[in-house]
């Protein structure tokens, strides 16, 4: 029996990674069904359906223009049809669509099917944090859901530039299956067994660090200070992960999902860039306005995650343990000026305790 | 009995940090002698002696112009006189002067005196690596020598910008003494007990990583790849440290001496900048020429350290464990083109094993 794979999502990152998946299933016909269905939220592109364009021209002209997709990737506008008979689900869609898609998929999930989430960030329900992998698993009858995170800017992947990625999973067997789907000569994956929660949480939390790094850039605080703020952010990241995974492994932070992703986000990337502008123009601008000006109205992940995380910290009354995260949120909310960033952490001693 | 402190060195970094030391001894007269002698290699500055200028105008016009030194810092041109009666030695001078200074100081070192090295990098003798702290200790009758490392660009420190730093020491007591000398509201030190070797080696090895990062910038390999190369550099750094400190603590790499210093060096700094140029202009330029063009002939640390480290690796026949370090050196030596950088590590799996 070969395994049928479906991609739930068709944005920038989904389209970049479905290339790897399409090529890999084709190359391994003894393991995988040669067709990869990709659920595409139907859109009208100059009078033509997006699915039709993808299936005829093998290009996602809306979300990854200029890059050819493998011809064995089939765009399907109906999510149930896309996932029909699937043994392996790859989730790569915005948060807000997860719940709706899963409630539709629930009825037809095969026993024994496995999933992987490529979605960065988390949700908050009733003051508690819910990881996307767990949300999906809960909605899909307890399906085991792994995660893939790392320094993986979609455009660079699609352009064929080398990168590393981290697969976090409970079972190494599942990790190996996902590696055989995603790994190529220029997309190298490392499997982290038993520390999935850390891998997944890094993907969300790093955006808060990037906001702090952007503030320090906006205030021209220099290289030493910026590095110190990022480092303190890593220390708070570890402490925050510990709330959900007391056995978090410090070595996981040295994987691509950790330091590598933090560096790309805190030295490049739009969370950093908009936060720099925010601090420069303070108080004459807000993230909402900057999102309109610089992102065509797309929401920035960092301030959102900072808010969610600050809420959890306040609910748990742990403000003293997370001065940087709390302060970054307060600055985003304009409760305090960016100039107060340093003061919040200046005399804090961060120490990693096993 | 109060403790007498001397600074052996008067360059950019020594001059920036002697400000902290001068202010701290003045503020703690019950612990420290109020005068800090600073050994200054005598130079003629437009017909005036540098020591005279420092002592009269409290400014190191040659190595830290525009910044006032505390008036209790006394420039002394003779190293023996500068260190007379010293209980605490701070070493902050170029490698090549260490041996000579120590051979002079040897005769007069007090029993019970302690030292700290701020010198980044190491020496190679007979194919073996010698840490500066150990070289100093060996030459000075076994004096215990701690180290201070971190994301500490001297000019930013002198400008009053916030930074963190790491003190590596065998004894926590010594660590605390050094913290009381260096720490200020904007220069925060963290003491790492028992992992001094790791702290010290990070300070040298990070420059090799910066060279790799610069090559990737020069070849426009993108953010994902750059982060991957830096991350793989960190993994090789840990492996290399293990050769000298099998009990290296992974948490030490999350201190300022680790990730923070690596980030500033690999995203800013001259090792990165010159290596970018080297890769761009390859094969039409050499590091020697670039040093002349861009550094007024000053030697760049990265290629030098890469060479020393590659020699150790080759002597120990460990090339397979350190493909990135060996390749970076081979590129610096023009044995292979920068384009071969990726190939060397593309299929390497780095895994942290305790």
Automatic annotation (TrEMBL), chains A, B:
Keyword Oxidoreductase in annotation: yes
InterPro entries according to UniProt: 6-PGluconate_DH-like_C_sf, 6PGD_dom2, G3P_DH_NAD-dep, G3P_DH_NAD-dep_C, G3P_DH_NAD-dep_euk, G3P_DH_NAD-dep_N, NAD(P)-bd_dom_sf
GO biological process: carbohydrate metabolic process; glycerol-3-phosphate catabolic process; glycerophospholipid metabolic process
Residues the entry annotates as binding substrate: 120, 270-271
NCBIfam families cross-referenced by the UniProt entry: glycerol3P_DH
Superkingdom assignment: Eukaryota
Active site annotation, chain numbering: 206
SUPFAM superfamilies: 6-phosphogluconate dehydrogenase C-terminal domain-like, NAD(P)-binding Rossmann-fold domains
Domain Glycerol-3-phosphate dehydrogenase NAD-dependent N-terminal: 4-173
Organism taxonomic ancestry: Eukaryota, Metazoa, Ecdysozoa, Arthropoda, Crustacea
Family: Belongs to the NAD-dependent glycerol-3-phosphate dehydrogenase family.
EC number annotated for this UniProt entry: 1.1.1.8
Organism: Lepeophtheirus salmonis (Salmon louse)
GO cellular component, one term: cytosol
Swiss-Prot/TrEMBL catalytic activity: sn-glycerol 3-phosphate + NAD(+) = dihydroxyacetone phosphate + NADH + H(+)
One Pfam family from the record: NAD_Gly3P_dh_N
GO molecular function per UniProt: glycerol-3-phosphate dehydrogenase (NAD+) activity; NAD binding; protein homodimerization activity
Pathway the protein takes part in: Lipid metabolism; Phospholipid metabolism; alpha-glycerophosphate cycle
Sites where the protein binds NAD(+): 41, 97, 154, 270, 299, 301
Keywords: NAD, Oxidoreductase
Glycerol-3-phosphate dehydrogenase NAD-dependent C-terminal domain residues: 195-342
Protein name as annotated: Glycerol-3-phosphate dehydrogenase [NAD(+)]
Keyword Oxidoreductase included in the entry's annotation: yes
